[in-house]
């Protein structure tokens, strides 16, 4: 029997129920967003007792489907005030799925000042006090070690880091990955929601759990094979990402003039070689030691866009060293040393903060005079202050919108108070529509129009022109909402966008697992429904079309080298959600 | 001829026009709000080049009507994102009116990094570079001295203080009062708008200006006399405010259990005697020297609620030492020493920040662990850091909502990101409706329902009950919007609320000045129109009824001693604007 688990931390009540009928057949984002829209008062304070936090594996998680190990986490976001789904790799999703846990809901706030650990295993749910030694500034790497020691090295772990304990709106939820390193449900401050509930961690032990039941195993295996072939035969998902990681995009975006630099004043930099994926590959290869050029964030990943980045002595510094973080610190903040950026990435993982939000905030803080441009040492020190937190640490940990507010800037690159990532909307117009309109606040993963605009996968649009972008942004957001419900990594898109067989294989796997006969029309419908549910929440929380706008300066500051501005009219932008 | 002056700081263009037809017959808030709604894009960034700043005297300003010297300032607020009108005493309004200047509009942003001074005199408008010595942290007291030295001691002066130069969202606009001290257009951060336009100051020299023309002087004089009698014969406006200043309210609200204390956790304190108006009166009287128990913020004031508060040696510390500031620091932040609070008040005037917003932010910062409870020395030091600004100074200068964000608090007393002032909405329910619904963000002056709830002037409502409050809050907001358009001090309300002759005399003065025959119905209509215009702007800026809500904790945390919660339903709250 599939389980729907509720833990209420106000009275420490645990409820293990069958999945409510209305949530049957849903997984991942479809489930978390429906639940939040149903049960959370849209005008509640995100850090108050009435917000709820839900964890849900995707529909295919726990199976042998390639790249299906992503976990969705949902709540009302303390950063944006919107509904939020963010997802992560790691081992959590697969363990939940194997144990038949369709959702874990955390409600309420303890009346005392202690922090707690929720433990899930085959015997049910227990609530422990968090060990003193992992509280009050203890980094996530250490906390994972301590909890692995206490609960066993095989368990899955979710953590609110120091930033989450302090309820900073950039706090992420950090997850132990297969090797005991860190993966993050990064955006929107859900770690602060966890911290507000005094929930330091969740431990999951799937010892004794069987395999996820598959209705038609033969069909499933056949479809999984076709799907895997589609991923591996595509140059992006089969080669580029494995060789250079997501950081392969530095040179691509720089060439396209869409790499926002020096707080979104330029679209191209001279020092791209310092921070490119090609350089990262060469550095890792040259240094050897712990270094790995290619590595997956969860078991069953065949794309392997992650890597282990080592120091000069070959000792592991960080993994999951993503393009968006490297872009923000390297190009937007002008830090030219990849080793310094790697240490910052490690520090942000260790503190448990969204490395996109805080890194963009760093660049904005440089424009605001809070930090010197390009100064890696000053930035690493400032990031470490978030763990304390000092006043400067609190400002950066408050996110980009807070930095803009306390520095009196109008050049604050946020939508719905969430930082705009690594693709300038003036020269990659499609992605600008996603930033503006997604219910999540600025988020490239909510409809990655960079694909058809720049990579020419799944579309061929002129990134500098408006033509076709509205329809494309709409379809990308709909498709993404569906994919985010399957537990699939977003990058499977590259494999299936131009491969009808690959796409059909994805649907076939779902059908084979659940004994269904869904069509691509059903998948689109699912995506549309998810987005409508999310928009409904946001509307009731007070969001209107006036919030679906980019910061005004994009409209009148032209971006070199193409010297283009953001020129969609409000009416055009509003067309994205005309479905 | 009445003038409508526009200064565009992008190209330094000056335009002196007749008052556009649609603004004829409007003054004060009616004029500023209509103009902002007409000409400012509601989704613009408040600190970007497309925001505009407008200064307008009230309809009766510059005449001999008692208490008619208030000036309205309007813009889109960088604190709230709403339309904003805030008003101030000082000499500016009367000088503008005498010179026939119905409005000064400041637009654009200079392309260089210099700060400027706009000078208005009988020869027109000039734009000077600001003297170096008043820039970069120079306090307002000194800046007024320097500018008075340069332009003459008789001129009026408006200033963006250090906080305004740094574009902090709590920056006010500081005005020289008749004695060269400071009055403030306090709320909503309009000093930051001034700073964003690199406008350090405005100097007005009315040398050579005649009297404001009066169509029917006899009638005017007669009405003014009746009006003055109404004010002086009322115990609040004729006696209480003169004797004890607005700080008379400490004991009244404490007794009523509506004095929000220790960040809105209690409605009553034990140390009320330390900070009461009665104590202030006794201290000023005892210390002598520069001390003045009673004093007006502008010429022609007959209420005289201001005072000069001296130190132990009798030397002037501060004036305009208001209840709301003393409440926030004394009760909400628990600082028990009135002298310390006086130095903080002076420091905030000198830096040019809203003493309500920053003082409430101080109390919230104490809950957040940024400052120790009740520690006057630490707070004075922190306030002075706003002038630098240090990171801590920036956080406090960011306002209460920013403090709540970076401290991860759900107990953040703001509406539309503006701090809730000195009357707890759980035990003074009428004022809670004003906080929730006024287009200004939480603002007691937008519909001072404390009057009929606590003071029993103009109404007799049970402050702990909902009965009659919706209609009362509606009528108070409508009436206030009208009064804010006349240039009248808000406190004339006490004199006219229960005096039909007094109210008629106010209308008679307007009619006599302009040769009109307005009725009380027209006045109500004016108030309604102003509010509708403001709501229209806010709606287009993205505000909905979901923003017309108090922070959620008021709904479930009962306030001692009455142990009442905020229990208006959303539907009831929305009824306030049902007109």
From TrEMBL, chains A, B:
Its cofactor is tungstopterin; [4Fe-4S] cluster. SUPFAM superfamilies: Aldehyde ferredoxin oxidoreductase, C-terminal domains, Aldehyde ferredoxin oxidoreductase, N-terminal domain. It comes from the Bacteria. Coiled coil: none annotated. The keyword Aminoacyl-tRNA synthetase does not apply. Pfam families: AFOR_C, AFOR_N. GO terms for molecular function: 4 iron, 4 sulfur cluster binding; electron transfer activity; metal ion binding; oxidoreductase activity, acting on the aldehyde or oxo group of donors, iron-sulfur protein as acceptor. Keywords: 4Fe-4S, Iron, Iron-sulfur, Metal-binding, Oxidoreductase. Residues 1-208 form the Aldehyde ferredoxin oxidoreductase N-terminal domain. Belongs to the AOR/FOR family. This is Aldehyde:ferredoxin oxidoreductase. It comes from Acidaminobacter hydrogenoformans DSM 2784.
